Amino acid sequence: MTTLTTTSDADTDASPDSSPTDGDNTTTLRLRDLHTTFSSRGLTVHAVRGVDLDLHPGEITVLLGESGSGKSVTAKSIMRLYGANASFAGTVVLDGRGDLLAAGPKEMLSVRGPEIALIPQDPSAALDPLRRIGAQIVEVLRQHKAVPSRAAAKARALELLGQVGIPDPARVYRSFPHELSGGMRQRAVIAIAVSCDPRVLIADEPTTALDVTVQAQILALFRSLIDRMGSAVLLVTHDVGVAEEVGDRIGVMYAGRIVEYGPAAEVLGDPRHPYTRALLDSIPTPGVERGQLRSITGQPPVSGELPPGCAFAPRCPEAHDRCRAADPVLVDLPGRRLAACHLLTDDPDDTDTDTDTDSTAGPDSTAGPDSTGGPDSTATETSVETPAPAGEESAA
Amino acid sequence: MTATQLVGDDTAPTPTEPTAADVIPAPGDGSPSEATPKPALKRRRLGWPARIAGGVCVTFLLAALLAPLIAPYDPLADDRSNRLQPFFSGGHLLGTDGQGRDVLSRVIWGARPSILTGLIPVFVAGIIGTLLGLVAGLGSHRLNTVIMRTLDVFYAFPAVLLAIAIAAALGSGTSNAIIALSVILIPPIARLAESEVARIRSAAFMEAARVSGAGWWSIALRHVLPNAAPAIVVYCTALVGLSIVYAAGLGFLGLGVAPPTAEWGLMVNDLRQFTFSSPGISLVPAVVILIASVAFNVFGDGLRDLLDVKGDGR
Amino acid sequence: MIRFLLRRLGLAVPTLLGVSLVIFVTIRIVPGDPVASLLGPTGSPEARVELTHKLGLDQPIPVQYVTWLGRVGQGDLGRSIAKQTDALPYVWEAFRNTITLSLFAAAVAIVGGIALGVIAATRRGKVASAISSGVSLFAVSAPQYSVGLILIVYLAAGRGWFPTGGMRNTTGADAGTVADLIRHLWLPGLSAALVPLGIIARMVRSSMLDALSADFVEALRSRGLPEWKIRWHAFHNTLPSVLTIAGLQVGYLLGGVIFVEVVFSWPGLGLVVFQSISQRDLPVIQAGVLVSALAFVVINLIVDTLHGLLDPRIRR
To answer: How far apart are CA A34 and CA A93, in angstroms?
Structure first.
């Protein structure tokens, strides 16, 4: 892993792992059959229902989906940023650290920051409003002993502020969060996130709270930082434009599951899952007539109202009987892609599909590319519930 | 989190997309000892402490109401030969005071002036404060400024001291104590009423009422008041305990009823000379006020939590 | 910061004027004829007119107010009827003892209130939390005179652990030793501290809960900071609002320890006012109220300034 040094060796210094390779030998973080369930006062929400994902160094993997699809929960479950009301199942293996879901609280403290860092959604909410920016960076550096002394911490903090494209680091170092613009704040937050050279960066809607013009700058900065540092990135967004701009790989999430996965260009250019197609159809594209802009009919499933069979079936224009009867599994498609849709696997051989239907009735209905057959899934067909807050008809 | 959020509505897309994580706010780290978030659905029932407290309040009110029926002795009948009898002696459940008067009977009869001097100011201040709040909240900007800045002046006094100053200037007596307490209770109630009115005024149905040509009084009485009333009433309930303590305080200082009338505050002052000789009896009125204060506060607090009303911690 | 301070000072002026007006009104609403009571029943009509003129009572009310305000501005708060001395020095001497008691009580209230509030906020759903919430609600409801008497009966009278009274001046020539002062301070201090302690505890609890559910807490957690450091951040964020409440409580104490002073015979402003009530010594009562109100305004000013120092967002 390369480290951030000075700004002079900038973008040309690509890390050795920066090319989006597909070899599993370079996997930094490996999620297998991740389940996250929230329970509060008798109300249970099964937010993530068996997600498999591999993050590779220098590569940006985008989790794309509507509100309540479970993408943010997936991201934060990796860092276990939930309280006692959340329970997890599956494995999250960080290269060299073992299963994070089994790690103790102490161990998690040393993982968060130096190993896995988070860039939260709203930069103004991610900073302590009463502390100067500099102090907040120094605090993290000192916590993880990334610097030998207080003076070194300050020097490093100023350097980091410069690296995230802040024009006068000394002033921002002394500033309180409310004295900075949204874009500057997000740069400061990014500086904190990358301060300990994390191997995995999780960005939860990093540009959603920003102006469109600032969004583009932050995304460009993000891309160049990743290219330089070689971190593995998980970027969560509902914005297809963001996914298109920076994503190397895309996982489309729906109702707590990944329904389509593959290289960004292919998933966006030739979506195979009806949900991905609907999602892409719902965003306006320059040059396309207004009449062709479509919204997805209906709403994402509400907690406790998960339909039998495919969760997307009630909204799917191509759904047929089998979709309403059995939940499809992710299947390999040509071009190192995956999608979970009966339409892709349906073939006229009836007996074959029948056995397929039976097998999906069991608790473990997911099968990833390298499924290690993790711990028993908590998802039984009767108790499966998905979260769905305010539904959005269109994802844009 | 409310029920409507859980059900979900398909409104326009919001810029910051709410996720499942927002629906299930979950502060706390990975350790299982961490806090659970707010309950999914707020309980709409009084908790047991508030119910017990409510029972105690009702007992006090009944004692005041039925004093002639339940008091075992005449609260004013002194019996010099029977001074400072201990608890449970000679039919005196709570003993006798320095003049041989039955303490229990005096506590029961004392509930009348004590609770009345506590309750009436809350009523008076509640009405005047609500009116001021309505006028300030619905009137012109200038009127609002004048009223609210004037009220601010009263916040520059420690409330107890102001009540003492007013009561002292007017001279001792129950009615003057009531006036003094009403004056100091008006500002906080008016502030709450004004903020409630301001909140209601921005509601959509107000626009409809204005457009339909309703007059000021009609808007104030038909639309604003009914919506502001619950919060104001609950806030006033929470003030009763405080008011009773202040009322007894004025009595204690000699600014309430005149002796030999039984009144809790006056009894505290009257009996405190016996802290050495008869410590138990000397504490009776002090403890009675304490119980009443705690009961009314716990009950008022329970109501406040139930309706989620906020006041200023005065 | 200087501009912030100046603006606060500017805002204090109308408040002070309002305060003076309220006190002036309480002087004027005193029932009875002050001239008649000063002259006695034998006063001739000429003497009456002369005294009325001398007291300025023949002037229009606004003129009387301005005259009175001018005298107050020069430190002339009238003469004590009972003591036949100037009211201000008399009241001021007592007020210094009140300041001692109030500051002690405030220290107890702030330390205890913060401790109780933090426990109630961070041990949610546990016995410690329920107990500290209950204790704060009880404390808020506890009248000074009740608590004072209970403390006297159980800790002082008969046991002799603490003195029940007999406090001399805390400052000046006849002041006792510091040890003696502290011995005398405990019980009245605790009695006076209870209500503000409860109020501060409840404030700390609610703002600590707010801070702990703020988004930046998750961000801090994601940076691998240990739980105690996260709580420290949250606690820091409660300080501006807690400070405001605590400052208000100090102000209330300065004007509100009257019951404690009476119960413990503490030679403070409250005791002086109490004695003056029975003697109908109105100038002393008014001077006492004015001094307390003034102190209250000054404390609010200090609190505002500290608030500006603690919270950079309001410093404009």
So the answer is: 11
Is the confidence at residue B108, as pLDDT, over 70?
yes
**Shortest CA gap B307–chain A (Å):** 20
Handedness of CA A126, A127, A133, A135 (dihedral sign): negative
pLDDT band at B124 (very low <50, low <70, confident <90, very high): very high
Q: Is the pLDDT of residue A4 over 70?
A: no
Q: How far apart are CA B284 and CA B265, in angstroms?
A: 11
β-strand pairing of A232-237 with A60-64: parallel
Omega of the bond prior to C267 within 30 degrees of 0, cis?
no
Does one domain contain both C69 and C198?
Answer: no
Nearest CA in chain C to A79: C222
Provide the β-strand partners of residue A45: A38
What DSSP string describes A261-290? EEEHHHHHHS--SHHHHHHHHTS--TTS-G
Burial of C22 (0-12, 13-18, 19+ CB in 10 A): buried
**What distance in Å separates the CA atoms of residue C101 and residue C96, rounded to the nearest whole number?**
9
Residues C69 and C99 in one domain: no
List of domains in chain B: 117-306 (1.10.3720.10)
| Rounded Cα distance, B53 and B297, in Å | 8
Q: What's the token pair of residue A32?
A: 């297998």
Determine contact, residues C293/C316, Cβ cutoff 8 Å: no
Distances, alpha carbon C238 to alpha carbons B265, C207, C210, in Å: 37, 6, 8
Whether C164 and C310 share a structural domain:
yes
Assign C79 to helix, strand or coil: strand
Complex ipTM value = 0.81
Determine the straight-line distance between the first and last CA of chain A, rounded to whole angstroms: 35
Compare CB distances from A110 to C221, C224, C310 and report the shortest one's residue.
C224
Q: Do B34 and A83 touch (CB under 8 A)?
A: yes
Q: By the 8 A CB rule, do A64 and A71 touch?
A: yes
Residue C98 and residue C222 in one domain: yes
Q: Which residues have C-beta within 8 Å of that of residue B41, sequence separation ≥ 6?
A: A41, B2, B3
Say if residue C152 is in the same domain as residue C294. Answer: yes
Q: Which of B5, B14, B36 sits opposite A40 (nearest CB)?
A: B36
DSSP B110-178: HHHHHHHHHHHHHHHHHHHHHHHHHHHHHS-HHHHHHHHHHHHHHTTS-HHHHHHHHHHHH-SSHHHHH
| A49 in contact with B, Cβ within 8 Å | no
Q: Which comes out higher in pLDDT, residue C35 or A128?
A: A128
User: What domain range includes position C37?
Assistant: 32-76
CB contacts under 8 A, C 7-26 vs A, are none
- Within a domain: C3: no
A212 to chain B, any CB pair closer than 8 A? The answer is no
Under an 8 A CB cutoff, do C296 and B286 touch?
no
Per DSSP, A375 falls in state S
pLDDT in tens, A132-141: 999 999 998 8
Last residue of a domain, one of C51, C76, C101: C76
Token representation of residue C165: 């009274």
- Residue C232 token pair: 């420290």
Q: Are residues C64 and C110 in the same domain?
A: no
Residue position matching structure tokens 């009387």 = C64
DSSP 8-state code for residue A44: E
In contact, C19 and C296? CB cutoff 8 Å:
no
